[in-house]
Amino acid sequence: MHNVRPLPQYLISRYHGWKATAYAENSAWYRRLADDGQRPRAMVISCCDSRVHVTSIFGADSGEFFIHRNIANLVPPHAPDGQQHGTSAAVEYAVEALRVAHLIVVGHTNCGGVAGCHAMCSGNAPELEEKSSFVGRWMDILRPGYERVRELPEGEQIRALEREAVMISIENLMTFPFVKAAVETEELSLHGLVHDIREGTLWQAEDGGKRWMAL
């Protein structure tokens, strides 16, 4: 017995609309992508949040971005322990196989994962401290960021922690030997952004995250 059900009708209708318009008008391009493989220039690591739509923000076409999404756009430290690491595998493939030129970490405002990390680290979310919490153990990656912002005024801590989620990820990326080597030979550049959902603004990390400039 299985639990797989047909797609909801509204999604089927949207698919048929896409196939009859966007695909039909660009079918040669899709065939080329299928036959020649992907050659994206950039990898994007962004949050699973449904409000973050990086392809729309940058007007990206199919084949342009290699995208990995996870809770709070976090990258764990390099840990070759023989276990299963989805984010690390995506980074390895992008840098080693696809040879992307840019790796962009995109955070965002009002991030539920970041808010959960703040609550957990400040002692207000004991359920996330449970060993059985997948979210809590994933957000442990951001604990060093919390330590950096905990002395700020309470009203500023969440915004600062959203930026730390980006900077911690970039710092952890540099613990991967193949990332560090590619950065040092200038074959790869790392970039940190935070998307303000309400204002539509992109903030870019500069000077190692000490300054954030609106693009």
UniProtKB/TrEMBL annotation:
Top-level lineage group: Bacteria
Catalytic activity: hydrogencarbonate + H(+) = CO2 + H2O
InterPro entries hit by this protein: Beta_CA_cladeB (IPR045066), Carbonic_anhydrase (IPR001765), Carbonic_anhydrase_CS (IPR015892), Carbonic_anhydrase_sf (IPR036874)
Family as reported in the entry's similarity comment: Belongs to the beta-class carbonic anhydrase family.
Cofactor note: Binds 1 zinc ion per subunit.
SMART domains per the UniProt record, alphabetical: Pro_CA
Name of this chain's protein: Carbonic anhydrase
Cited function: Reversible hydration of carbon dioxide.
Gene Ontology MF terms in the entry: carbonate dehydratase activity; zinc ion binding
Cofactor requirements of the protein: Zn(2+)
Binding site for Zn(2+): 47, 49, 108, 111
Statement: the UniProt record of this protein carries the keyword Metal-binding: yes
PANTHER family, alphabetized: CARBONIC ANHYDRASE (PTHR11002:SF76)
Organism per entry: Paracoccus onubensis
Gene Ontology terms: biological process: carbon utilization
EC number(s) reported in the record: 4.2.1.1
Keyword Lyase tagged: yes
SUPFAM superfamilies xrefs: beta-carbonic anhydrase, cab
Keywords: Lyase, Metal-binding, Zinc
